[in-house]
TrEMBL record:
Keyword line: Membrane, Transmembrane, Transmembrane helix
Residues passing through the membrane, by range: 29-51, 79-99, 111-133, 153-175, 187-206, 255-274, 294-316, 337-355, 391-411, 423-447
Segments forming a coiled coil: none
Upper taxonomic lineage: Bacteria, Bacillati, Actinomycetota, Actinomycetes, Micrococcales
Source species: Humibacillus xanthopallidus
Protein name as it appears in the record: Fenitrothion hydrolase
């Protein structure tokens, strides 16, 4: 996607987007795939016999100390985070408008590394942070406050659920993975200006509900934020909890399946597109490469949604329910794919985040490309300890496997909640098969050169 300003000898060692090769694994690939499939099957059998009633409650969790909960709820913490977010936004816009259109400009790194990948990692650690530091949301709220207008002002009621967010996430994924010249300043100026304009227009018409549901990056942060160990129980107190508790709070809603399909399908396509065989096919095809890659990306989105729907359709038939129930079941089951999507994000973007995130610090110190060192970080030498091949391969394999195991548990909890008790176990079999295919497919994508 983007080339670092100065990689030196690491240009051949750093895999793009954190996608390694099979030779990086400390275990034979066939053994890893067999172990992954066995782990999923064993977990399914175990939970089928030992976990027969819903166990995840909103009152669960380990209470945080009062002083730590007070810090998390404090206005100054929110204010500091917002000030830093605004400062970074203004600094990036400064480089966007006045900086050089070259590899020395930090804007592509801020957009594709810090914003896209860093936001995902931060959300999985701390929760839906973008809701707090979204500069467009803050700008909208500030304008309404200055105009002394209610923050709930809306011209029209909002009715589309997460569909605009799914479309926005799909568009950004296409920009990141398919669009040509996606690091040129002209392209980025148009992209960022369009996003700001559309967001402000949506907020002006539909009020702040637009940010809650339609903003693609708030949806990205909120859904991945469900995996955070930090959460609130039903009485509002801060607790440490499992990722399953966060995922279990999400209920089916319009556009959720499409949004999750884009999240999972886009990351899977990212790994697939790094395959040498695919790259050779694209280059030798008589079709335009951008068209071929666009169609394939959309195909990955559709494949996730289709397999989830088919699994749900078979599940309701096995449960003895009418086929029309599959529409609601697919939405109920969609949250169980979020841990899988989170595992894919870690696997595919770990190296990119660790290494290029440090390179971004270098470039931010010289936003105009004049050789200045305004932040004192221009001489930063990126550390490589966390991108050693064996460590990267281990992180990739573990994150995908853990993500799928959490997905199985989340699906089981939801199944025994929404399906008739007598059919809940057998009704999970189709979704279990789909998750095994996702596991093997994800590992194959990662470790096939």
């Amino acid at each position: 996607m983007i080339a670092p300003a100065s990689l030196g000898s690491w240009s051949t060692a750093l895999p793009g987007h954190g996608v390694g090769s099979r030779s990086d694994l400390p275990l034979p690939f066939a053994a890893l795939v067999a172990a992954a499939g066995a782990a999923l099957l064993i977990s399914f059998v175990a939970i089928g016999f030992l976990w027969r009633e819903p166990r995840l409650r909103e009152s669960d969790g380990l209470l945080l100390p009062d002083w730590l909960a007070g810090v998390l709820d404090s206005r100054w913490l929110r204010l500091v985070a917002q000030v830093l977010a605004v400062a970074l936004t203004l600094w990036t816009l400064f480089a966007l408008v006045f900086g050089p259109d070259s590899a020395l400009n930090p804007v592509p790194h801020v957009v594709y590394v810090w914003f896209w990948v860093g936001l995902a990692f931060a959300s999985m650690l701390f929760g839906p942070v973008w809701r707090v530091i979204n500069p467009v949301r803050m700008l909208h709220a500030g304008v309404l406050r200055l105009a002394r207008v209610s923050p709930d002002l809306a011209v029209l009621p909002y009715r589309w659920g997460l569909w605009p967010a799914a479309l926005g996430l799909g568009t950004f994924t296409w920009v990141e993975l398919v669009a040509e010249e996606n690091t040129s300043l002209d392209f980025l100026r148009l992209l960022i200006a369009s996003f700001f304009a559309l967001s402000l227009l949506g907020a002006a018409v539909f009020g702040r509900t637009w940010f809650d549901l339609a903003d693609p990056f708030e949806a990205w942060s909120r859904l991945l934020g469900l995996l955070s160990p930090l959460g609130r129980r039903d009485d509002g107190r801060w607790v440490l909890r499992t990722p399953l508790h966060g995922v279990n709070t999400l209920r089916g809603q319009r556009g959720l399946v499409a949004t999750v399909a884009v999240m999972l399908g886009g990351t899977a396509y990212d790994g697939f597109s790094a395959n040498l065989g695919w790259a050779t096919f694209v280059q030798s095809s008589p079709l335009p490469s951008s068209l071929l890659r666009t169609v394939t990306l959309i195909g990955f989105f559709g494949l996730v949604a289709l397999t989830l729907w088919l699994a749900s359709a078979v599940s309701v038939r096995l449960a003895g329910e009418p086929l029309r129930q599959s529409v609601s079941l697919v939405s109920d089951m969609a949250p169980s794919l979020i841990p899988i999507a989170g595992g894919y994000v870690i696997a595919h973007y770990w190296s990119l985040w660790v290494y290029q995130g440090q390179v971004t610090w270098q470039l931010l110190s010289d936003p105009l490309g004049t050789g200045a060192d305004w932040l004192g970080t221009a001489g930063l030498v990126p550390a490589d300890a966390l991108i050693q091949p064996t460590l990267v391969a281990t992180i990739q394999a573990v994150s995908i496997l853990v993500g799928h195991l959490l997905g199985v548990l989340a699906a089981h909890e939801r199944a025994i909640t929404v399906l008739p008790h007598r059919a809940a176990i057998i009704g999970q079999v189709p979704l279990m098969v789909v998750m095994i295919l996702y596991t093997v497919g994800g590992l194959t994508i990662l470790f096939t050169p």
